[in-house]
Amino acid sequence: MGMKLTLKIWRQKDGADKGRMVPYELEDISPDMSFLEMLDVLNERLILDGEDPVAFDHDCREGICGMCSLVIDGTPHGPQRATTTCQLHMRHFQDGDVITIEPWRAGAFPVIKDLVVDRTALDRIIQAGGYVSAPTGSAPDAAAIPVPQADAHDAFDAATCIGCGACVAACPNASAMLFTAAKVTHLGLLPQGQPERYGRVTAMVAQMDAEGFGGCTNTGECTAVCPKGIPFETITRLNADLLTAARRS
Amino acid sequence: MDLFTEGEPIHDTRAPDGPIEERWDQRRFGGKLVNPANRRKLSVIVVGTGLAGGSAAATLGELGYRVKSFCYQDSPRRAHSIAAQGGINAAKNYRNDGDSIQRLFYDTVKGGDYRSRESNVHRLAQVSVEIIDQCVAQGVPFAREYGGLLDTRSFGGVQVSRTFYARGQTGQQLLLGAYQALERQVAAGTVEMFTRHEMLELIVIDGVARGIVARDMVTGEIETHTADAVVLASGGYGNVFFLSTNAKGCNVTATWRAHRKGALFANPCYTQIHPTCIPQSGEHQSKLTLMSESLRNDGRVWVPVAKGDTRAPGDIPEDERDYYLERRYPSFGNLVPRDIASRAAKSVCDEGRGVGPGGLGVYLDFAEAIARLGRDAVANKYGNLFEMYERITGEDPFEVPMRIYPAVHYTMGGLWVDYDLQSTIPGLFVIGEANFSDHGANRLGASALMQGLADGYFVLPNTISDYLSGGPFEKVGDDHEAVVAARKTVTDRIERLLSIDGDRTPDSFHRELGALMWEYCGMERTDEGLRKALDRIRELRTEFWGSVKVPGENEELNQALEKAGRIADFFELAELMCVDALHRAESCGGHFRAESQTPDGEALRDDENFAYVAAWEYTGEAPVLHKENLEYENVKMVQRSYK
Amino acid sequence: MSWTYPGIGHNFPDVASRSNTVTAPRPPRAAAARPGSVYRSSVGKKAVMAVTGAILVLYLVAHMVGNLKVFLGRADFDHYAHWLRTIGEPALPHRVFLTIVEVVLTVAVILHMWSAVSLARRARRARPVRYAVRPAAREHRYATHVMRYGGVVILLFVIWHLLDLTFGAVNPRGGGAEPYDKVVADFAPSHWYVTAFYVIAVIMVGLHLRHGIWSAFQTLGLGRRRRQRGLRLFAGTVAALLVIGFVSVPVMVTIGVVS
Ligand SMILES: Cc1cc2nc3c(=O)[nH]c(=O)nc-3n(C[C@H](O)[C@H](O)[C@H](O)COP(=O)(O)OP(=O)(O)OC[C@H]3O[C@@H](n4cnc5c(N)ncnc54)[C@H](O)[C@@H]3O)c2cc1C
Ligand code: HEM
Ligand code: SF4
Ligand code: FES
Question: Would an 8 Å CB–CB cutoff place B553 in contact with chain C?
Answer without folding.
Answer: yes
